[in-house]
Amino acid sequence: MSLLTPTLIIDEYAKIKKTREFFTQGKILVSVGDTVTSDSSIAEFEEKGDLQFVRISEKHSLNENEFLSGLLIKEGDIVSENEIIFRRKSLFGLLTIEERTSIAGVIEVVSPITGAIGIRAKSKIKNLLSYLSGEVKSVTNASVTIESTACVIQGVFGVGGEKTGTLHTLNISNEKQVAISDIPQDCSKLVLVGGTQPSGKVLLEAQRRGAVGFITAGIGDAALTEFLGFEIGLAITGNEPCTMSIVVTDGFGNLTFSKKVSEYFNKYSGTKVSINGTTQVRAGAVRPEIIIFHTMLPPTKSLIPDKELIVGAIIRGTRAPFFGQEGEVVELPVELEKLPTGVHSRVVRVKNKQGEIYTIPRANVELV
Amino acid sequence: MEKFQLNDSIHSVIITDCGSTTTKARLFEKSGSTWKFSQRGESPTTVEAPIEDVTYGVKNSIKELEEVTKKTFLLDENLSWSPGVLFLSTSSAGGGLQILCAGGVKNYTCGSAERAALGAGAILLDALSFDDVREDPELIQSIRELKPDMILLVGGVDGGAKHFALKLAEILRAAAPKPRFGASLKLPVIFAGNKDVYPQVQEILKEVADIFFASNVRPEILTENIHEAREVIHELFLTHVMSHSPGYEKLIKATPEPILPTPSAVGDMVQVYAKNTKKNLLCVDIGGATTDIFSCIFDSENVFNFHRSVSANFGMSYSIGNVLVKAGVRNIKRWLNFDISDSDLKDILRNKMIRPTTIPQTREDLFIEQAVSREALRLSLEHHKTIALSASSSLKKEKLLSNLFSQDAGRNSLINMKNIDVVIGSGGVLSHAPTRLSAAMMIIDGFALEGVTEILIDSVFLLPHLGVFSTVNEHAALEILQNDCLIPIGSSIVPTSRKKVETYGDIFIHDKKVATIHSGEVLHIPEQGKKTIKCIPHNATVDFGEGAGKMVEREVLMGVCGLIVDGRNRPFAGNSVFVELP
């Protein structure tokens, strides 16, 4: 029976396919077979303007009839900014109530019951970016599917949504806590990676200097709270109001990148990268992703074996006291064993690089 | 659908509960004419890569049963069953449903909407009322940023004012909220307000939402009716959140009975038990994403009241970050007997949040989780007290009237800890605690028990399974519950006093004095069986549960641990109130 062990994707030659779509009126700008980069505009679509309500009855304590008697517009009318849309005389003609619209747009709603007028601002045209660098495989009226071969690294937690930029490896060791002096003065469109446990101040400064992404192995709860300005309650993220997305590859605390991940970041520094900090740790789980676009050809023989928890597999601990430690599985006892907590659990025996053998609950490992 | 009948051809019943973190399979077998619990199997719930199919975890947990019993239950990978095997399942659709309430006036209908949402197991993101101080642009921004899974829109009594609901409908239209996942889909909006405005609500929101209707949560000013709204939320909860759990459709086809939500199944079984024992009962199921509390209380008019609350924001893995935020580091640390920095504690809990299937391997990690469980219990009980109001119409009207001026529900709740006779604990952190005594202490501390209370544990996590079993054979389910499932841990004796005292009183077992309770101390008195205890207060301010200064004499279960006598008074005070019993 194969065992179910979590695995985060780390694949230098991953084949990925994404369908980019929009749900309003729009125009596709590419054709099947086109080569696109992650920041290519592949479609234009109309984003509806905001609907703004002017609450006339509430503001002036009018009843339904009084509201209706003062209307100067009707649904469907086009209005200019500052145009008068309501006028009513009261107090025997001594007082005039006037309301103007603060935006230009179309009268979409006239609501007698609530005494409000809804004005829809003009639509904007927005660009849909490719996010992947690759080849356009298929196109419909409202979607584009792109395929790519890229180095994909899945994180364990992130904040912020899709960003695309250039990978920039900081010139520090993986064990060093990132300082402000370690980050470039101009971080425009860079996705920074390196060191560990950046403080909130470092993250905010990197964002201020124009970085669009920050990848770290470990982060502190306090740093994340300082960066966001609020505490995260649930691990459901992706819509935070930040211009820099963060992807954490290993977890909270003083953790470092695995050897393989670190090698990839160094190898591909300077190349195009797309990241997405969106995380959902619940039904329909979503993990943050780092997609590094390179032009390397995959080796002729597959170097990626199927990942399964068997003797010989390489694992990484995901909880104290072996958090972040890598080792090779040497034994998979069938019987439950008693942990120091007093609880019985299925375990795995692991040998580290120093040849020491230790025991971890199977629930606390992930395959590398 | 015709209800399935358990007949003589069935000799084995396998029931799985798909939790947020773990899928738990339980085997029940017929021996003669009696059903017994036989074996258990467990597997991580498989919602993440590389599997992404909930039935995989189900099959693995059942394969564990096959390994241990050397029997074959599954015929193939498509969940086909050997002859004579019945498969049933429950699901807690892990992770919680996030709801935004909108409409109505804050102390009236909006409050009822909040109770409907909370009682249905939702995480309440925000409540936007007609009389909200925020202007339209701020409300619109809030709706867009919160990204709810669904919206409960209310407002106006039936036949009454229309604008309480319509104004918020207009704001929802302006916000045009998108569901968190599935950008092509429309957000579900449940309208449970003035039925006279159904057509207008439909017209206003048809472009931006999928609209569902439920009876008005406040059909009259002094009548609250949140049952139907809760049921609609539950239904959408399963179809909407579970739709993100691949494999759910396959699971439905594998069983002849509907898959029950775990809280429903547990609630059904708890009611069966309470009606049989005729005791005031509190049951808690503390899971990875939610803490569900069930109360069965006979009120002052001797009416049986059952209430269920699903605190979808307090759990031991997915929601552990929320417990940290709501409880605060200080409240968690008061349950630890070692030093740890705030930042280290927070990082440990955040790591559990993002890797929910891990288990504590060190004693410190275990104590930290048990400390968090105490806070999850405390917070969930506070929430439950706002739900558990008397069903008596006159009291309800008084409560609703008082709500016009104050939202302090706790004073008028049915839940008075002095009157709770029995507490049942369930859920991984309790059922799988390394010692029964530590499980009892989590309950005593988390619920701040008072008076004399019997404590039982669902030792192998059978409550949800028996709940769905009871739908095909209630008698058998009750027998298994009493014989195989519930383990009496013991009884707690917790005196309270409004004034500071040196000693609370003396405890006698069968007229033999066994202890004097000193202020601040916690005693463990190992005893067995069912025994008569007497609690004699030392002065007129000490209350053992039946009034200040009154002696309490009662027959109680000693269980596997005996008596736990707690002199720390209530409410807990101080930075460190944790006591570890040897």
The description of the largest β-sheet of chain A is:
11 strands, mixed
Basic shape of chain B: globular
Spans where pLDDT lies below 50 across 5 or more residues of chain A: none
**Global geometry of chain A:** elongated
Could you tell me the strand content of chain A as a percent range?
A: 35-45%
Structure annotation, total helices of chain A: 5
Q: Termini of chain A, distance in Å? A: 20 Å
What percent of residues of chain A adopt helix (DSSP H or I)?
10-25%
**Count of strand segments of chain B:** 24
Radius of gyration of chain B: 24 Å
Radius of gyration of chain A: 28 Å
- Seen as an oligomer or otherwise, the chain set is heterodimer
Strand order of the largest sheet of chain B: 13-12-11-14-15-16-24-20
In short:
Chain A has 368 residues and is mainly beta.
Can you give a write-up of this model?
The complex is a heterodimer of chains A (about 375) and B (about 575). Chain A is mostly beta strands and about 375 residues long. Chain A has helices spanning about 55-60, 65-70, 200-210, 220-230, 260-265; strands spanning about 10-20, 25-30, 35, 40-45, 50-55, 80, 85-90, 95-100, 105-110, 115-120, 125-130, 135-140, 145-155, 155-160, 160-170, 190-195, 215-220, 235, 245-250, 270-275, 280, 290-295, 315, 325-330, 335-340, 345, 345-350, 355-360, 365. Chain A has 5 helices and 29 strands. Chain A is elongated, with a radius of gyration of 28 Å. In chain A, about 40% of the residues are buried. Chain B contains 17 helices and 24 strands. In chain B, the strands form 5 sheets. In chain B, strands 13-12-11-14-15-16-24-20 form an 8-stranded mixed beta sheet, sandwiched between helices. In chain B, strands 3-2-1-4-10 form a 5-stranded mixed beta sheet. A 5-stranded parallel beta sheet of chain B has the order 6-5-7-8-9, sandwiched between helices. In chain B, strand 5, helix 2 (about 105-120) and strand 6 form a beta-alpha-beta unit. The longest helix of chain B is centred in the middle third of the chain and has 25 residues, at about 365-385. The N and C termini of chain B lie far apart (about 55 Å). Chains A and B meet through strand 5 and strand 21 of A and helix 1, helix 3, helix 4, helix 9 and helix 11 of B.
